[in-house]
Amino acid sequence: MDGSYKRLSSTGYKAVSVYSAFLLLAGSCTQLIMFIVLLKREYRKKILTPCFLSIIASNFLLLYGSLPFTFVSSVMKGWIFNDKICHFVGFVAGTGSVSMIATMAVITVKIYLLVKNKPFVGNRIERDNSQTKVLLGVWLYSVCAMLPPLTGITEMSIEGAGTNCVPQWSPENTSGRVYVMFLLTMAYIIPVSVSTIYLAKIRKVINKNTSESNYYFVNLCFRNLRNINKMCMFAIVFFTIAWLPYAIVVVICMFGKKSSISPEIEMAPTLLAKTSAICNPFIYAIVNPK
User: Fold this and answer.
1) CA-CA-CA-CA torsion sign (93, 94, 100, 101)
2) Which residue windows are coiled coil (predicted)?
3) What's the DSSP call for residue 2?
4) Angle at CA 89, nearest 5°, toward 88 and 90?
5) Which domains, ranges and CATH numbers included, belong to the chain?
6) Is the pTM higher than 0.90?
7) CB 261 within 8 A of CB 170
């Protein structure tokens, strides 16, 4: 584990501690409220409820897998935990991040499969058993993506002025560089691309069928799915924007220019990325109040 890192000013550490505490508190409240709502009888059998529950689990991993350690480290003005804790933080928070965007991609594909076959829209709003296997696959995919630092193929590194642990973004060996490119591609580029492509397909199909259909119930189903699609679109756009600065920092570090990044600039994208974990419920409520 790389223990060398630049330090923030005293004011910088105070700002990080306050913001990380805010994220932890706000994230806990929003995810708990969302969880309670999804357990209501009218939502239990909805087709996307398991996906939203998966996103809640992902957000909790991201929040509780890293922010308590970030808060303590910022108060102590540096990383005070051992290597095992560092590996735990990087693995758990990373798994949560990967599973969150992967689940969003699954949602867009699921909606597309619903809307592309108009005669069955009304009969397929309820949940089917195939989702369990798909979501288990998402979590297996996410865990496998974060395994290399635990197995010694690459390493964990302390970042954010000694307040967080992540995979080594500036590896000195070929296997480490390959892993960074693999993780960037599989955990960000591919899920975001899949989501974008299917959101466009869904929009095209829904617009076509709502204008052609005279069957009221089918038309209503398509309109409900349009609202869900809009909700997913805003969530994915926010996720993409929130994580883009961090992805850029990762690329800069990978090409050996980490020394040119100040600790403040390195810390800001990290906290912005974790903000995505508390905003999804607000997006759902604003876009789809029902």
Assistant:
1) positive
2) none
3) B
4) 95
5) 10-287 (1.20.1070.10)
6) no
7) no
